[in-house]
């Protein structure tokens, strides 16, 4: 039996417990940076992006990529495979990628199973499987459900939509039946809320951060914690948040300024005391954008990736979170 899990915490606990089989930790962060529909080999735009933004070296990324793909290619060696995932965008994209991958294979004797939860008894704010103890994970063993054609097809459609370069496809998937993966719709809706909003050109991560800073939370670590609590369905890690914070602090037209000595953490350079102790504040432009007086994309410009969607140049649309639809700003 092969268990494919979403992180090292879960993988380590499964190995220590009484759950039989091999464990494969799927090390990817699909909410960050470009993806393509078929990623059978390391895709250079993604490799370059993750090195530039998160500090993940190209060598490290490629080595890990080839290692986990090789294990996946040998799936036929296992009678059963169990996918362990949770409800957030981080996991739902990982799950959809793997379902897309398996949908193109002849499984033969290999049975696919899914364990996917959005809460756990006794945990008020369930953030993920990593919160659970070894014994709690053991209690989930055997509660997984068989993955059938409907789940494979749903995962395939979600991944192809997320990897599409067309914004319309990212929106259309919200209105399709994805109930075979019951957490997918909410996660994909939050994915779209990360895009430039009709209010001021900010995504929900940036907007939430500015709102919290206005309310007096100005320590980077505390800010990450509070944004994570409010947007828990994103499953956003600290490296992604530091990158978003860094982007907002870049001149010209910065929304934020950091006071004190600091260096932004990344994959190579972990959190330094200087960064822990610095203070985050809004610039004058940051305040104007936060309250909707200015549109940051119009002021700053944009060159960013969300899945297969590259946002750059003259962006003619904005996302209306409340109405869940695109607004053509050229038409007013």
From TrEMBL:
Domain DUF1835: from-to ranges: 2-104
Domain of life: Bacteria
Name recorded for this polypeptide: DUF1835 domain-containing protein
